[in-house]
Amino acid sequence: MSTIKGWAANAAGQPLALTTFDVGALGAEEVEVAVDYCGICHSDLSMIHNEWGNARYPFIPGHEVIGRVTALGAQAKGLSIGQRVGIGWTAESCMHCCQCLSGDQNLCASSVATIGGHHGGFADKVRAHWAWAVPLPEDIDLTSAGPLLCGGITVLKPFLAYDIKPTARVGVVGIGGLGHMAVKFAAGWGCEVTAFTSTAAKADEARSFGAHHVVASRDAAAIKAIAGSLDLLLVTVNVPMDWSALLNTLAPKGRMHVVGAVLEPIPVPAFSLIGRQREVSGSPTGSPVDIARMLDFAARHDIRPQVEMFPMSKVNEALAHLEAGKARYRIVLEAGS
Ligand SMILES: [Zn+2]
Ligand SMILES: [Zn+2]
């Protein structure tokens, strides 16, 4: 019998408790990965508190895993024992549906989230389908790479999906866990970057991440002053905003793309879309190939999430730090500590 020991959520809102689970034999297409680092994402908190209504307890949170392959199922392909890999939001997809065969495995209707009916990375080990254990580039910084696996691919995916050009003007709404990575990726991509933040104290930091301009996101006059200028507006916040004003920052054919889990519906006036042929869209993470490309790009441009380190044993303190809005800007747990 094979076991996984990790920090488990047993019911909504309870502190995580160190628990050992019997996970049975490794599946033929699975790999087992020893966890070295695991980032904490806001989605871990949302699942621990069952904010989306789909948590299945008990489960071990954590879906930004950096680790080493320690066991390979009989049918696992392309990986070797000891290889450094990353595992993000998705642990499995069916690999035979239209989406999977088209290379959009992240859109597979029967995919399994790493923390949805599956044990995640706040643990000694984690399992995934071989395709979702993505090899890491040699020169990537292992301590800070975890948050790239979920947050990083989430903010880079629209650049890949919509073929955003380096000549584009890109706005990023919210300079937090997702947004600070979005600014770094957009700047690395070559774009002119405008950061929108409600926290004046983050303006200099946003510039240090690569933003060319900073706009106060609650300052209607400042937002109006850049009306019609942005080709892509990436929304990373999870709170309501002045959506009409933000839509009006878009240039003709501009796109507002939502990756923050705003629970309240976003009103979209038809005329703000029609007159200038604007679009509104959203997307979840990316395929294994997208993730591999993102990791290569991050390594080449030395794009590192700004992280605070906590020992894995202090996971509850780390979650409280995130919940209090104090994380600057992502938290990474170090295993074996
Ligand atoms: Zn996440
Ligand atoms: Zn599928």
TrEMBL record:
SMART domains from the UniProt entry: PKS_ER (SM00829)
InterPro entries documented for this protein: ADH-like_C (IPR013149), ADH-like_N (IPR013154), ADH_Zn_CS (IPR002328), CAD-like (IPR047109), D-isomer_DH_CS1 (IPR029752), ER (IPR020843), GroES-like_sf (IPR011032), NAD(P)-bd_dom_sf (IPR036291)
Signal sequence, start to end: none
Stretches assigned to the Enoyl reductase (ER) domain: 13-333
Organism superkingdom: Bacteria
Gene3D superfamilies the record matches: Medium-chain alcohol dehydrogenases, catalytic domain, NAD(P)-binding Rossmann-like Domain
Key words of the record: Metal-binding, Oxidoreductase, Zinc
Similarity remark: Belongs to the zinc-containing alcohol dehydrogenase family.
Protein name, entry field: Alcohol dehydrogenase
Taxonomic lineage from the root: Bacteria, Pseudomonadati, Pseudomonadota, Gammaproteobacteria, Lysobacterales
